[in-house]
Amino acid sequence: MRFWPQSTPIERPLCGRFAVALGLSILWLTAAAQEPEAPAAPPEDTETAVPAEESPASQGTEAEIPSETHLTRLETQIVFLDLIEERRFEEALPYAEAMTELTEQEFGSPSTEVATAFTNLAYIQRSLRNFDESNEAFLAAIEMYREMEGPFAASTINPLVSMGANYHATGEYFQALNIFQEARTVNRRVFGLLNPDQVEIVYRIASTLANLRRYEEAHEQQQDALRLMERLHGSESLEILPYIYSYAEWLASGFQFEAARNQYLRAMGLISELDDPESGRLVEPLREMGNTFRLQKVAEGRGIGALRRALEVAEAQSEPDVLELARVLRDIGDWYTAFSRVGPSGEEYLRAWELLGSVENGEELREEWFDDGDGDYVLREYPSSRGVVDADEPGAVEGHVRIVFDIDVDGRPRNVNVLESDPPGFKDATMQRAIGRSRFRPRVVEGELAYAPGRVRNFTFHYIPDDE
User: Fold this and answer.
1) Helix (H, G, I), strand (E, B) or coil at 342
2) What distance in Å separates the CA atoms of residue 405 and residue 139, rounded to the nearest whole number?
3) Which residue ranges make up each domain of the chain?
4) Which of 24, 101, 175, 190 is disulfide-compatible with 116, CB 3.0–4.6 A?
5) Measured CA angle at 190 (ends 188, 194), to 5 deg
6) Which CATH superfamily is domain 17-375 in?
7) Distance of CA 446 to the CA centre of its chain
8) What CATH number does the domain located at 378-463 have?
9) pLDDT in tens, 257-304
10) Are 194 and 230 in contact (CB under 8 A)?
């Protein structure tokens, strides 16, 4: 495996006709039926805080319905929904299993109600990362829908997409690709060749192709998605902005930074012409364009200039979007952390943290942005690929280096040490050097910058062992 950047799928909520296909599932799973993101390929470095605590699911525990409890289907459903609302998925699992049995007893099989119960069970298993069990439940639902509605049943689309995402999450990309393509075929057969909801599936296909190193095909899928939306809405329309941003993000993830910036400039031109030269819509493309320079590791004036312009536009709105304003401040803070030679002040981070206190889910965002235990890269140096080979090269074996380090209030790594490596010493120095030269978003606790100890990253690679 070479140190190629992993592409991340552009996710947007499944909507429109997809929601119809879910039927009763959406009524039952108000909190959990949202499609989880299809994970990208396993990254070449992963991170945890120390110590890393295992979830109950990973410890092998299994919740059960109290043996003395005898609930009706409706009572079981009510308890199930309450647990889902509280995101207590492990406790919800036995109720989901009971729902499939009770529903089958009441409605018989095949039936829409039983298929829905299997779909709900599959989502719960997926939330617990029990992917094999989740796939079994999805497949049971899919087969039941096909038995009732035929081979091109609209109701199979979401379960197919979710099952493909499960295979993607476990690195089984060929299986994932086949299932995503099957889901798109059904979607186009049922809703038409130009229906917009297929774009969600196209993004997943592109991500999977990228993880199979079929980069040109993946790029073609991204272009097809944008062209499809242009045909539906017109190339000079504000409705295509989200799809321009998705394509630009894809380009940036593949190091095509100038091409990505051209897409953001296109979006800004549309906004200025069709909306207003000072429209709040400009904030997102300005901010994202500025970030491409940081991702490229180029401290060019156009980068910070775009970010400052985004801040100016955001603050000038009669009713500022507080969350978008916080994003701009966060990203300006990232710029200074990445490139400042004298040490950033952290002022923008603290302003962003304060603003999050007044937005919905603000506490969750504070934790995600500033205290998630990982330490987000704001400037990433990659280790040398010398001596590493592709995973599929004959004789290749996997190696790893586990690094522990602290992050100070300026976002600089401190006390960078190797915890373990295999083979010992082979890539230790280059991994340490990569962490030491990178920069990270500092931790913010109770409105103050804070030292973040014990961050861990595990780098994996493939190599050909020397003959003994």
Assistant:
1) coil
2) 44
3) 17-375, 378-463
4) 24
5) 40
6) Tetratricopeptide repeat domain (1.25.40.10)
7) 27
8) 3.30.2420.10
9) 999 999 999 999 999 999 999 999 999 999 999 999 999 999 999 999
10) no
